[in-house]
Amino acid sequence: MKQKTIWILAAVLAFIYLNNSSLLAKKPTGDPFLLAHRGLGQTFNVAGLTNKTCTAKQIYPPEHPYLENTIPSMRAAFKAGADIVEFDVHLTKDGKFAVFHDWTLDCRTEGTGVTRDHTMAELKRLDIGYGYTADGGKTFPFRGKGIGLMPSLEEVLSAFPDRSFLIHVKSNDPQEGIQLAKYLSTLPPRRLSQLAVYGGDEPVAALHERLPNLRIMSKASMKKCLIPYLAAGWTGIIPSACEKTQLHIPEKIAPWLWGWPNRFLDRMNDADTRVVIVGGGGGFSSGFDSAQDLKRLPAGFTGGIWTNRIDRIGPLLQQDTIRQDQDSLSELLSTKAVELLVSSSLK
C-alpha cells in the first residue's frame, strides 16, 4: 500500500510538471506588445512615494517636451512603438470625462480643488505644466506650455480612431462607471474592441454590468481570476473569471503562477485574456523602463510590457525584432544553401 501511494504521488507530480512546464510547451511565437503608461510623460523617482506625493515636484531633468495624458504625448508614444496607451479619466462637473492624472488640481496646475468639481471648459483654461520642477522649485520648465492641453475622453478617441487604449478610472464611485458605460455604449463594436477599462472595484463592476463584452480589470476581477487559478490551474483548467479580461501581473508574483510564462500565456490567450507584466511588486506603476529592465523578462516573452519610458523601450524592442528577423533569415538562407549543395553533389 505504501509503495502504491508513492507511485500515485509520483504520477501526480509528473502530471503537474508536464502540464505546467514551459520547457515542454510549444515555442513562443510573435512579439510582445507595449503598453505606454500615460503616453510619453515626465518620469520621477518612485522611492518613498505615497498617495499624497506631488510627483510633478520631483521629476527627473526633462529629456523630451511631452506631458503625460495629453494628445501630443500619446501621439509621441504611438510613434515610439506603443501598441496601447494608458490614460486616466475623471468625471467633470458637467458630465464629461477629463483626461488627467490627479484627483486634485493643486499639484500639476495653477488651479485648486477637486478635478470633478470643475467643468471641462474650466479645466481647459488651466496650465497643466504649471507645477513641474526638477530642481526643487528653482525653475519650472513646462510652466506656460500646458494651457489648453487637458483633453476630454471624446477628444482622445476622436484623435486616434484606430488606436488601442486602456482607460483608468481613478475614483471608486460607481456612478462614474455608469456614466462611462453610457458614453462608451454609443461607440461601434469594433471601436469598443480596441478599448479596455480598469480602476476601482465599484465603477468597473458598474461599467461591466452594462457592457459585459468590454475588457475590464480591477482588484476584484484579478482576485476572481487568479485565486481560483492558483488553486486549480495546475490541471490546466481556466476559471471562467479569467475569460476575456485583463491581467496585470507583477514580475515578482508571476513565477508563482501555474505554467508561467509560456503555458500561462497560452492559456490566457485561449481565454481571450490580455496579460501585461509590470515591474517589481506592481507598486506605483513600476514598469520596464530601460535595457537592463528588459533583461529580466522571460526568454521569448510574448505578453504585454508595461513601460513608463516608451521612448526608450520602443526602439530597443524594434531593434531586437529586426535582429531576430535577420537571424531567422540568415538561418533560412543557410539551410537553403546546404540543401542546394547537397542537391548539386547528388547529381
CA-CA gap between termini: 66 Å
- The sequence of SSEs as H and E is HEHEEHHEHHEHEHEHEHEH
Q: Averaging pLDDT over every residue, what do you get?
A: 90
Percent helix range: 25-40%
**Which descriptor suits the 3D outline?**
globular
Main β-sheet: number of strands, strand sense, barrel status? 9 strands, mixed
Main structural class: alpha/beta
Short description:
One of its GO terms (biological process) is lipid metabolic process. With 347 residues, the chain is of the alpha/beta class.
Topology of helices and strands:
Layout: H1 2-20, E1 33-37, H2 71-80, E2 84-91, E3 97-99, H3 120-124, H4 153-159, E4 164-169, H5 174-184, H6 189-192, E5 195-199, H7 201-210, E6 215-217, H8 219-232, E7 246-250, H9 262-270, E8 274-278, H10 291-294, E9 304-307, H11 310-345
Parallel strand pairs: 1-2, 1-9, 2-4, 4-5, 5-6, 7-8, 8-9
Antiparallel strand pairs: 2-3
Helix pairs in contact: 5-7
GO molecular function: phosphoric diester hydrolase activity
Organism: Paenactinomyces guangxiensis
Domain GP-PDE: 52-317
